[in-house]
Amino acid sequence: MSIQNKNLTVGNVMLPINDFPVVSQSTILKEALEKMDSIGLGIACIVGENKELLGVITDGDIRRKMLSIQKPLAAFFIDDTINQAIKSPIVVSSDTSLADAVKLMEEKLIWDVPVVDKDTLVGLLHLHAAIKVLLSPDFISN
Amino acid sequence: MNIKKITIGYDKVKKVEVGAGLPLAFFGGPCAIESKDHAFFMAEAIGRVCEKLDIPWVYKSCYDKDCRSAPDSFHGTGIDDGLQILSDVRDEFGIPVVSDFSDAAWAKETGEVCDMVQVPAYLCRQTSILRAAAQTGRPIHLKKGQYMSPWNMKNSVRKLESHGCDQIILADRGTFLGYGALVNDMTSFPIMQKTGYPVCFDATHSIQLPTSMGNISGGQREFIPYLVRAAVGCGINALFMETHNNPKAALSDANTVLDLKYLENVLHQAKIMHETRLELLDKFGEDNVHPE
Question: How many domains does chain A have?
Answer without folding.
Answer: 1
